[in-house]
Amino acid sequence: MSVRANAAGSTARAWLGPGLAVVLLLLPFGGYGLARAGAVPEGTPVVLGLLSAAVGFLLFPALYEERAPFRHSSSRLVARTLTGERSVDLDRIATVHLLTTFSYGRVYRTFVVRDSHGVRLGITTERSRRKLRRAIEKADANPSHDAPGPRVSRAARTCLGLAPGRGLVSHTAVALLLPAVLMPLYLVIAFRLGGH
Predict the structure, then answer these.
(1) Is the dihedral of CA 116, 119, 122, 126 positive or negative?
(2) Alpha-carbon gap, residue 104 to 69, rounded angstroms
(3) Beta 84-89 vs 76-81: how paired, if at all?
């Protein structure tokens, strides 16, 4: 398979995660429409809201995280994800963001890398993080007018050891508080749609 075909397949898979998230978030509204038409019971939006919240908030971050087996080359990271194999071009990184999640009292950090082809990969292993750090350092050291350097969030730079500061503290606080606010709000909307 050619690199171009592989990138096209990875790009298509990259849109699968956000598309699935949108469908999950809209399920209670679809259930509300069906309940109004009498096709399903009135409580359907509530059930769909609970299901969507559980699946969306827990599964969505894992859709594009790297899983074994993975391969590294001088300029690419290729890894399996829940949505298939993805290949990120480290010479053409567009953005890097830090995603922080919590489970069983532990903090999990994933570097979400998107290249100029639109391929997105969540980096979790130490070896991949080292390669990402070197790629960012290389891009920062050799800026080009044709290809601007990657946009790397302050929290990602701090976590990779590329920048000092407290960006990681505020990022972690927001990552902890945001789901605590958004999930109940989403469930309230689902309950209202269900007539409760």
Answers:
(1) negative
(2) 26
(3) antiparallel
Closest-CA residue to 122 (of 67, 84, 57, 54): 67
Task: Kindly report the backbone phi and psi dihedral angles of residue 125, in degrees, each rounded to the nearest multiple of 5, phi listed first.
Answer: -90, 155
167 vs 125: CA distance, rounded Å: 22
Residue 105 backbone class (left: φ over 0; alpha: ψ -120 to 50; beta: rest):
left
Nearest to 120 by CA among 12, 2, 4: 12
pLDDT in tens, 83-120: 788 889 999 999 999 999 887 788 889 999 999 888 88
Instruction: Return the number of other C-beta atoms located less than 10 Å from residue 37's C-beta.
Output: 8
CB-CB contact of 112 with 101 (8 Å):
no
pTM to 2 decimals? 0.71
* CA dist list (Å): 23 to 10, 29, 137: 20, 10, 38
Of 24, 84, 29, residue with least CA distance to 55 = 24
